[in-house]
Amino acid sequence: MILNHKAIFFRYRCVEKYLEYLNNIKDSKEWIIYLNLIDNPKTDKYIKFIILFALINPKNFENDVLINEELMKKFKKEIQGNSFYPRKYIDESSKCDSEKFWGTECRTNCKEMHLDHIFPYSLGGPTARRSNMTPLCASHNMMKSTNIYCYHWEIAYKEYKHCLTNQKSFWAHEQAKRIRHVLNL
Q: CA 129 from chain center: how many Å?
């Protein structure tokens, strides 16, 4: 998959807005304010989409006085699932999906395959959703790491709009609701 200039610009714009909103959310009180923006029908669709990704980031709660370290571990596991996906789900014939991120087929001879979080776990990406997992060789998994510029913002935005049109829940919105429930916000 070769990215055109429009897709690259969209990704950069999404990351810029994502980081802006993420920096604005300092604690659970501000988190609630942003969650209410999601539920407001007057809020722009694109803004709602970006805010959702900022809301699911676990860093929003790490410094919150309401949440201790033990609760944070429980929270992440309950909301996102384990930080790793069981190796039994990696098919032995799986190929490295590097083309999905960099537009070129994997040329390493690495036999060790990982199931990588497409939207990084450390930023709130779920393990419980198979659609957030993709096989990468160990080298490409380390190279991608938590690079949110590699995330397919343009594809996710289309999925988000499709969910809105069909009155379905987008995965990040489901996750934000679980966070609210688990933390009693």
A: 11
